[in-house]
Amino acid sequence: MSVEADIINRFFKKKTSAPLGIGDDAALINKNTKEYWAVSQDTLNVNTHFLPSTPALDLGWKALAVNVSDIYAMGGQPKYALVSIAINKHNMPWLEDFSRGLHRCAKKYGVEIIGGDTTRGQTSISITIIGSVEKKKVLKRSGAKLHDDIWITGQIGLAALGLDYLKKKITLSGSAAKFAVKCLHKPSPTDIQSLQKYQLFHSAIDISDGVIADLSHILTSSNLSANIFCAQLPVSTWIKKEKAFDYALYGGDDYQLLLTAPAKNRNRIKKLAAQKRLKITHVGQVTNEKEMMVFDPNGRRMKIVNKGFKHFVK
């Protein structure tokens, strides 16, 4: 168990009257007989979640987008957000750019900014987001079933690639570098409601800490395991060419969705996704083996390392 999970479980995870409390991408509160309110909160801190050099315009976008992803992971639609921000000084040009990025993201995803707080301190942005989800279509981490297919939306690994480029750990060509940095700074969460309205999926989680770490949350909640095939991962040409699959497996910061669905739904998911122009890729299966297994493009089993984003590890 990670330090973060241990802190949550020991000090904050208590019994609640809410239909779903701590432990998923969002908590659920009864809205009416047919719908829940889905409520989530994420905090971004300088030097932990973003570099000091991150453009304020992009930071405003990302701060909201990472919360939108949580609501999508529950099968819901984001509606409202409260924004709290700490900054060292009232840098008006920075705040203007930040707010512009924030409101652009809000417009893109249909979110209304309805409140929040401002204070002085190290740069930190905390957003509470509220969405709605039909009770019969809600997705939870605990819903995975044996023999489910595992799906991933969009493309993964690019955000981590962009971060290593900015830290000068790798060299990329101009266009590849630009796109990777864009994926890091301006994630684009995928709305799967056009598919989930047919109740095609059993479970979901957003990919914030890396495929292995986030899939582990689903498997632990469902008491199952999985096989993942690197040859099927939706990654960039550079990652495939360099066989740098760690970026996808452990990098995180993608804010795409990882979902499980009955194998019988595979063709229907592919057909509907093509019709909706929604990128979603089948990458593995849920199993009842003793442990998760990852296979390289040649079918050889790879060692899973203890990676993935950790808040309390330097």
Q: What is CATH's topology name of the largest domain?
A: Phosphoribosyl-aminoimidazole Synthetase, Chain A, domain 2
Helix tally? Answer: 10
Quick one: overall form?
Answer: globular
Mean pLDDT: 92
Total domains, how many?
Answer: 2
What is the radius of gyration computed over CA atoms, rounded to a whole number of angstroms?
19 Å
- Provide the CATH superfamily of the largest domain: PurM-like C-terminal domain
Helix percentage range: 25-40%
CATH class of the largest domain: Alpha Beta
Describe the sheet with the most strands: 7 strands, mixed
Distance between the termini: 17 Å
Category from helices, strands and their pairing? alpha+beta
Strand order of the largest sheet: 7-9-6-10-8-11-12
- Care to count the β-strands? 12
Low-pLDDT segments, ≥5 res: 308-314
What is the name of the CATH architecture of the largest domain?
Alpha-Beta Complex
Q: What letter string, H or E per element, gives the SSE order?
A: HEEHEHEEEHHHEHEHHEHEEE
Bin the strand percentage: 15-25%
